[in-house]
């Protein structure tokens, strides 16, 4: 069952119906659904779909030749083209009179084995694009390769593409479409434990409880998710052990560069390189206080929820899990789930605000959202604001609480007090609650007139 990606499909369909040469680059991390997207788009279209494998140039050429011959004759032929150039010339010639989609999936595998492939494509595109109806799609999971060798200024194919699509994991409200049977609370928990990557979402069974799903995935030594972080790192990076150490350090609370460096006993310059690569992969993110660019205050956290959950709970319980003591492992995790979900809920609330903005329903026309933290000069205390966004003289301040208690008036008053650290003329306050709000809080919000109270359940129904 294919879910979501409406914008991406619309973009591809628009390119397809231009009836002229088009060249789209599609890239994104493994398991994110790139091939599924292309397959959905290619339904009922004349398509040559070739997937590269991690082997030598000859075997990839043989496979490519079979795909072409099977498309053109309806049968797989053992004979092979003499070169990638002759194979591609043949496809360009076929596409002179009709629209053909040529997909080269896992392009980095093919290009690494055949060093001249990019230059060959460059030559043929420049020679034939004016007379060709070919729709060429190059797709790859190696983020660094696609960005450095396909999209970069110095790459042979630079300037030839007519579109590029970076495929990201689903956000929360899209991910919910995978779960028709889960309760509202369990939908948030599901997103918290596997994030928005389609392949991970499909590992969950919405007929089971969240407890059973956690036991079947993260706490099951034979499940694909149990091995996924290590497997993905092995495929993407050269020194997975050090990357593992960096992610683990961040997961247990080392958020600053010097803390991570000390924890894994590596120089900060070395750590910086590994962290940069993890950011490119979408596993780690870096933040500075909203509105500030000071690298001195930069912190790092795990962006992908599957990795965040896995590194937070699995390594310390690996010995128990490997012995099949699933219930014992879960009993150690479950008391920490609400605290863990705090950060996940903040992200869900940000995504909700973006939805409001894009639908024209947000009182502050912000251009970005983030967290803010810093010193209150009067009280000389460290303060934090969960969500902040600004537009000229207006500011949005948000507080998010994933607790079973209703938010009371004190939370609103504290948020208003923290907003006074800034000098915006028009402030609007958002309180987001898992459960709801006390009468005192609701009455005060009504009196103020610039406060929006949002319960988690309301977010799912708007």
Please give the oligomerization state of what you see.
single chain
The radius of gyration computed from the alpha-carbon positions, rounded to a whole number of angstroms, is: 25 Å
Beta-strand residue fraction: 15-25%
Distance between the termini: 25 Å
Count structural domains.
Answer: 3
Total strand count, please?
A: 12
Structural class of the helix and strand makeup?
alpha/beta
Report the total helices.
22
Shape: globular
**CATH classification class of the largest domain:** Mainly Alpha
CATH architecture of the largest domain: Orthogonal Bundle
Q: Could you describe the largest sheet, including whether it forms a barrel? A: 5 strands, parallel
What topology, given as strand order, has the largest sheet?
A: 2-3-4-1-5
Rounded mean pLDDT is 93
CATH superfamily of the largest domain: Winged helix-like DNA-binding domain superfamily/Winged helix DNA-binding domain
Binned, the helix content reads: 40-55%
Poorly predicted tracts of residues:
none
CATH domain fold name of the largest domain: Arc Repressor Mutant, subunit A
């Amino acid at each position: 069952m294919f879910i979501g990606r409406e914008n991406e499909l619309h973009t591809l369909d628009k390119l397809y119906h231009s009836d002229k040469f088009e060249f789209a680059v599609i890239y994104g991390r493994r398991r994110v659904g790139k091939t599924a997207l292309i397959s959905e788009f290619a339904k009922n279209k004349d398509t040559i779909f070739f997937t590269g494998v991690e082997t030598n140039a000859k075997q990839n050429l043989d496979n490519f030749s079979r795909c072409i011959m099977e498309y053109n004759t309806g049968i797989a032929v053992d004979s092979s083209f003499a070169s990638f150039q002759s194979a591609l010339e043949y496809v360009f010639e076929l596409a002179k009179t009709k629209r053909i989609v040529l997909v080269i999936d896992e392009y980095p595998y093919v290009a690494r084995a055949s060093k001249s492939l990019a230059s060959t494509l460059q030559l043929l595109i420049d020679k034939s694009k004016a007379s060709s109806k070919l729709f060429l799609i190059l797709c790859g999971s190696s983020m660094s390769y696609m960005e450095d060798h396909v999209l970069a200024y110095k790459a042979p194919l630079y300037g030839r593409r007519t579109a590029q699509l970076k495929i990201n994991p689903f956000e929360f409200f899209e991910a919910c479409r995978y779960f028709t049977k889960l309760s509202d609370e369990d939908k948030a928990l599901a997103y918290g434990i596997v994030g928005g990557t389609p392949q991970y979402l499909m590992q969950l069974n919405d007929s089971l409880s969240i407890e059973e799903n956690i036991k079947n995935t993260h706490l099951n030594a034979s499940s694909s998710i149990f091995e996924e972080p290590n497997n993905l790192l092995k495929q993407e990076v050269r020194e997975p052990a050090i990357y593992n150490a960096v992610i683990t350090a961040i997961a247990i609370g080392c958020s600053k560069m010097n803390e991570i460096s000390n924890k894994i006993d590596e120089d900060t310059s070395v750590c910086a390189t590994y962290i940069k690569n993890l950011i490119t992969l979408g596993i780690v993110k870096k933040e500075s206080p909203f509105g500030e660019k000071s690298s001195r205050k930069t912190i790092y956290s795990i962006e992908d929820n599957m990795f965040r959950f896995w590194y937070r709970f699995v390594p310390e319980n690996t010995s128990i899990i490997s012995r099949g003591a699933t219930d014992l492992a879960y009993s150690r995790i479950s008391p920490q789930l609400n605290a863990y979900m705090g950060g996940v809920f903040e992200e869900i609330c940000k995504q909700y605000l973006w939805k409001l903005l894009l639908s024209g329903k947000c009182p502050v026309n912000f251009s970005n959202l983030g967290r803010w933290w810093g010193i209150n000069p009067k009280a000389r205390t460290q303060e934090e604001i969960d969500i902040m966004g600004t537009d000229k003289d207006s500011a949005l301040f948000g507080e998010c609480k994933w607790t079973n208690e209703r938010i009371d008036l004190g939370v609103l008053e504290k948020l208003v007090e923290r907003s006074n650290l800034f000098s915006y003329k028009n402030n609007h306050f958002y309180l987001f609650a898992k459960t709801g709000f006390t009468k005192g809080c609701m009455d005060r919000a009504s009196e103020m007139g610039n406060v929006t109270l949002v319960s988690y359940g309301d977010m799912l129904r708007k």
